[in-house]
Specification:
Blueprint lengths: L1 H16 L3 E5 L2 E5 L22 H11 L5 H7 L2 H15 L11 H14 L1 H33 L1 H15 L3 H12 L3 H25 L3 H9 L4 H12 L1 H25 L5 H10 L3 H29 L8
Antiparallel strand pairs: 1-2
Length: about 325
């Protein structure tokens, strides 16, 4: 009985520390791990806890499953869906599943895109749309960062401002359009204000949440080193909150680009959105499809540029943190 108790104590210690156990039994040495014991199923036929992997093993397996794939593999995996959609589009146009007046063939859209590109019409409208996004997103980013930092650093400011800001943020861009048309007209000011509003909301919210989520030990350690308030913000708070802040900037640019297209669809005589409306009015669906493809491609390219910038700015972080 004493030897059995010794074996049980050694095995329990090995299970807790993950190290092999060793003891003697019947004059011979007995070594091993608890997880090497034979599987003994319970009454329901399921393996007992002796065969279940330890928490550290489960965490290691889960981490291995979420390791990032190589770039070339991710690049290959991104192509099947758009190629399948393109093939479905071609089949629908080729076999007449959808009338050509409603869904032009891909080669027709490509030819129209080439004509718009050569004539300069596409470039002119694209430059105008870029200028509107630049002005609106710049104003919205400045306002959103300022408001988010103020709410994140001051509980008083947040208590006063956050409820009203949250209520205003629930109103979509189209909800502000009639009122702003009466106040500022339908000139460039209308478009810039709406784009700024669309981009400021996610930037302010993410900035506030990022600053509030800075770990408390970081702040305490900075106080131990007697950092000034500016040193605390520059060396601790802003670096720790950079990831949420940059996510807000990415979302803000995405919302700005979407708001631009909506505004140009309703109140503009230039830009990519106007090209879509103009093509629809003349029932030139090839122009509409070409403009839609450009809008999607430019939006995707802008997001990828910000993603690469985020990777560069946060290169100091280790993978998995």
């Amino acid at each position: 009985m004493a030897q059995m108790n010794e074996i049980m104590a050694a095995s329990f210690a090995a299970e807790a520390t993950g190290t092999p156990f060793a003891t003697t039994f019947g004059g011979g040495a007995l070594t091993g791990r608890l997880q090497d014991a034979p599987e003994v199923p319970d009454e329901a036929g399921r393996p007992t806890a002796a065969r279940r992997p330890r928490p550290a093993v489960r965490r290691a397996r889960a981490t291995a499953l979420w390791q990032p794939r190589p770039y070339w593999l991710r690049w290959l995996l991104a192509w099947p869906v758009p190629l399948a959609l393109l093939a479905l589009w071609w089949l629908a146009a080729h076999y007449g599943w959808v009338p050509p007046q409603v869904l032009p063939a891909p080669d027709t859209v490509a030819s129209t895109f080439h004509d718009l590109l050569v004539s300069g019409e596409l470039w002119d409208n694209l430059v105008i749309s870029f200028q509107r996004v630049a002005w609106g997103f710049g104003a919205g980013a400045a306002a959103g960062l300022s408001l988010g930092v103020a709410m994140g650093l001051s509980r008083t400011v947040k208590e006063y401002v956050y409820p009203t800001f949250k209520a205003f943020s629930q109103i979509p861009v189209l909800g502000w359009l009639p009122l702003l048309m009466l106040l500022v007209g339908i000139d460039e000011a209308l478009k810039i204000i709406l784009i700024a509003k669309a981009s400021a909301v996610p930037i302010a919210l993410n900035t506030c949440k990022g600053i509030e989520s800075v770990p408390t030990p970081y702040i305490e350690l900075a106080r131990v080193f007697r950092f000034s308030r500016w040193q605390l913000l520059r060396k601790v708070v802003f670096p720790a909150a950079m990831a949420p802040i940059w996510n807000g900037i990415r979302y803000g640019l995405t919302h700005a680009w979407l708001a631009l297209v909506v505004v140009e669809l309703l109140a503009s005589s230039e830009g990519l959105g106007f090209m879509i409306v103009y093509g629809r009015q003349l029932f030139q669906l090839d122009v509409v499809m070409a403009a839609v493809v450009v809008v999607g491609a430019v939006g995707y390219a802008l997001d990828k540029v910000l993603a690469l910038t985020e990777t560069y700015l946060l290169r100091w972080r280790r993978v998995g943190l």
